[in-house]
Specification:
globular; FAD/NAD(P)-binding domain; 415 residues; six-stranded mixed beta sheet; 27 strands; 10 helices; alpha/beta; homodimer; 31% helix; four-stranded parallel beta sheet
Chain lengths: 415, 415
């Protein structure tokens, strides 16, 4: 009854959740990922902001599931999927499958202005996080040694584009760094005079939360010295700063947290995509016309709820979908009845702003301030993988909270 | 009485030791470094071997001493020293000095074959350490997905060139990784079959230690599966492997731990250099003819002991010299009598090979095995800077010892 070969592409929240259940039920699984580690993306901004080290939020896939006898791991990027002959191909290997789970996640989009990327990096990978860290802390050093007051001001101006959770977390952390962590460390500059500007095109930040929580988040950001500009569209980004209509804001550190786009591989699968490039999937999360090919997480468009809204790109969605398709595959292998459709259980949403500051909503309950922040800490520690990583992150956070220090602020030179 | 302006170039062991004493004695100090952190170099090989994270062995200079009112820190690389007008220049700033301490350390040399560097990186910086980590763990992944047996063997062949402490520590760690840490993690390869070859041009490894300890180290390396080749000179290194006379050893991972050369800035100072490019210094560690310019650590050639041998490039030498020149500068400022000469107190030497395996010598006492290893652990924790770093490193080591895991083995992609 055991399936011949189940291939999972992507070891993120979705792929890993699926793999764990399939392995437990003794199916043969091949996990393909272009990285050798699972990354706990929700804390990546803390690597960028010098609170944590990469190894504390990443876990080697082989150490996680690779020792199971029914698990193979292949390092590589999938560049081709053949739906009919049923195989996937990486740069180096061709792997046949009986069932396929695509869980490749999403990427950033610059809305057609890809030339902005070198000046305004996004935050999806560890190298991007350490690059942002390098730019932020180098900006203070440049300001410190700069005699020209205008240039110094540009070095002390930090612009975050995009008012979703990542943008809010980055802007809040920058506010915390300049308010608490480093203001005593310089002679010529006062880090408290740094300008932090959060730019959002829509009418409020954290648009997926309630209006009240958007307001609270705005208030908490302002308390940390962050200027929030709503209904504001960036018209150009270059090495000198950001243009907003007539206004030009000189800045040497611009961070991009605005547009999310689905993985480019979606286009090669030959079925319908939505505007954001996500693949429409069946009620069992399979590709239309291909029952054995499942698409989950950020890659998939699945409508749910009374208003049939597409599910957002959140870790709980990917995890629930991963577990669901694993169960479907297992039930099929055992010739059991299948469920009607994937049912999403809303796990709420949260975003942290700074020490003692966060917003959270869960089943109609709204929280902000210290209580929301504590909930945020507990939830993130709980979902982090690996006992040692949990212990280290708890300790790093306690240390940072008590000492007001951020000790991972290394400016690692580029080779 | 306080000195006007003391400039220290380099925040390594020597420069930092000098800075701490001068700051305590209320002198004005400007510390210039091209990095914003002090790096605990003796543990850098553990970052390369996935035992530790960079932030655990590096400490931001500003957090360390930058908050003292009499301390300025300037991020930059010194590209010019004017001995007569008494200033140094970085790419961005010109800094006048009354006294100057040069503590810029050393670099690797490929003995005129710089074209080898891309194929055999050295281990002096954090980017080099993470690059070595990437190559080592990628080699196992490549071997795993390789069908061609010859290519697989090349991917599982690791060559370390240079039998000094760094070379021994790298080769020993590789032996440990393949013997204990990851052999269960792969399906197609047996990591225990990996070949690790340590190549030394001289007649024994660890030549600065006693012959008996060299023998012990050889034995311990062999127990970890390392093949040691003495009296062996590399004649070429390329992308395919290493040539030794007639023999060619195919290998995809080659590490360089052979030749150390002084900082290139030495040549610009216009005084005599020894063969290794180090500056000859006076008995007070100053540059001949320039009493207010001191040169310490790996940059200086200072002869000592009954046989007048030049002091080796070790952390204790740099630290003692840093403290010594700080005292000389302070005594001069207070018009006190100066000491006759710098007196080195031998702190012994040690090198670790693997779990429970090390060699150490201290004042005629020789140790090897578990006891030497415990001493090595204690000494390195003691000298590591920062309470949090100490705690984290102790915990990482205990975890690694008990679980046989190395969890920092992330293959971080290049941007």
């Amino acid at each position: 009854m055991t399936q011949k070969n189940i291939v999972i592409v992507g070891g993120g929240f979705g792929g890993l959740s699926a793999a764990r259940i399939l392995l437990r039920k003794n199916h043969k699984v091949t996990l393909i990922d272009q990285r050798n580690y699972h990354l706990f993306q929700p804390l990546l901004y803390q690597v960028a902001m010098a609170g944590l080290s990469p190894a504390e939020i990443a876990y080697p896939l082989r150490a996680l599931i690779g020792r199971k006898k029914n698990c193979k791991i292949l390092l590589g990027k999938v560049i081709e999927v053949n739906k009919f002959e049923k195989w996937v191909r990486t740069e180096t290997n061709k792997v046949p499958f009986d069932s396929l789970i695509m869980a490749c996640g999403s990427t950033y989009t610059y809305f057609g202005s890809d030339q902005w990327e070198p000046f305004a990096p996004g935050l999806k990978t560890i190298p991007q996080a350490t690059e942002i860290r390098r730019r932020v802390f180098l900006a203070f050093e440049k300001a410190e040694r700069e005699a020209d007051l205008k240039k110094r001001e540009a070095n002390l101006t930090f612009i975050v584009i995009g008012g979703g959770p990542t943008g809010v977390e980055l802007a809040g952390s920058l506010g915390e760094i300049t308010s608490f962590n480093i203001y005593k460390d310089f002679d010529h500059i006062n880090a408290k005079q740094a300008k932090i500007i959060l730019i959002e095109a829509g009418s409020r930040i954290l648009p997926s939360m309630t209006e009240k929580l958007s307001e609270e988040a705005m208030k908490e950001l302002r308390e940390l010295g962050v200027e929030v500009r709503l209904n504001t569209r960036v018209s150009d980004i270059n090495a000198e700063g950001v243009r907003i209509g007539e206004e030009f804001i000189p800045s040497s550190t611009i961070l991009w947290a605005a547009g999310v786009a689905a993985n480019p591989i979606n286009k090669s699968l030959g079925t319908e995509l939505d505007k954001q490039g996500r693949l429409f999937v069946s009620r069992l999360l399979s590709l239309p016309g291909h029952d054995d090919i499942y698409v989950i997480g950020d890659q998939a468009r699945y409508e749910w709820g009374p208003e049939k809204t597409p599910l957002p790109g959140l870790a709980p969605v990917a995890m629930q979908q991963g577990r669901f398709v694993a169960q479907v595959i297992d039930l099929k292998a055992r010739n059991k009845n299948l469920p009607d459709e994937f049912k999403y259980v809303d796990k709420g949403q949260m975003a942290t702003i700074g020490r003692g500051r966060a917003v959270a909503m869960y089943k109609g309950i709204e929280m902000h301030g210290f209580l929301a922040w504590m909930s945020w800490l507990v939830v993130h520690i709980y979902y982090l993988i690996g006992f040692k990583n949990r212990l280290f992150v708890i300790f790093q956070w306690a240390w940072m909270y008590l000492t007001f220090r951020r000790e991972a602020r290394l400016i690692i030179e580029k080779e």
